[in-house]
């Protein structure tokens, strides 16, 4: 059985060239408001699908090493997915990795 890799968009929002928030959003997800919030408290918003997989992560602060290390202890963050970072509608980076890899990517590219 072949399991299809889930795809996520990485968005870093800027105002006057200063990053002010970021998100990792399941591709095609329009509304996450009715989704269950994970019990983990290391990011402002962390939403789950009905099968308890990550669907949405959001924060206004750069991911800290301690938060990424904490995330590594939770199996949800080890899922391998495809992550696509676009800027102004143009794909900048496309990579496969875990959510921790995506958080490290945001940490490196978040210019606050």
Helix and strand layout, with pairings?
Elements: E1 7-15, E2 18-26, E3 36-37, E4 45-48, E5 54-59, H1 65-71, E6 81-87, E7 90-97, H2 99-109
Parallel strand pairs: 1-6
Antiparallel strand pairs: 1-2, 2-5, 3-4, 4-5, 6-7
Q: How would you characterize the largest beta sheet? A: 7 strands, mixed
Which structural category do the helix and sheet elements fall into?
alpha+beta
Q: Helix count?
A: 2
- Low-pLDDT residue intervals, each spanning 5 or more residues: none
Q: Main sheet: which strands, in order across?
A: 3-4-5-2-1-6-7
**What's the overall average pLDDT, rounded?**
91
Q: Please compute the radius of gyration using only Cα atoms.
A: 13 Å
Shape: globular
Helix content: 10-25%
Compressed to H and E, one letter per element, the order equals EEEEEHEEH
Q: What percent of residues are in strands? A: 35-45%
Q: What is the terminal-to-terminal distance?
A: 43 Å
Number of strands: 7
Walk me through what this model shows.
Strands 3-4-5-2-1-6-7 form a seven-stranded mixed sheet, with helices on one face. It has 112 residues and is an alpha+beta fold. The model has no long low-confidence stretch (mean pLDDT 91). The chain starts with 6 loop residues before the first strand and ends with a helix. It has helices at residues 65-71, 99-109; strands spanning 7-15, 18-26, 36-37, 45-48, 54-59, 81-87, 90-97. 16% of the residues lie in helices and 40% in strands.
């Amino acid at each position: 059985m072949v399991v299809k890799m889930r795809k996520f968009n990485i968005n870093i929002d800027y105002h006057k060239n200063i990053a002010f928030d970021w998100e990792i959003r399941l591709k095609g997800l329009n509304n996450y408001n009715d989704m269950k919030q994970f019990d983990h408290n290391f990011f402002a918003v962390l939403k789950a699908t009905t099968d308890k997989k990550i669907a949405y992560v959001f924060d206004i602060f750069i991911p800290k090493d301690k938060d990424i290390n904490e995330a590594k202890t939770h199996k949800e963050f080890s899922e391998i997915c495809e992550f696509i970072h676009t800027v102004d509608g143009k794909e900048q980076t496309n990579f496969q990795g875990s959510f921790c890899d995506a958080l490290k990517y945001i940490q490196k590219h978040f210019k606050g």
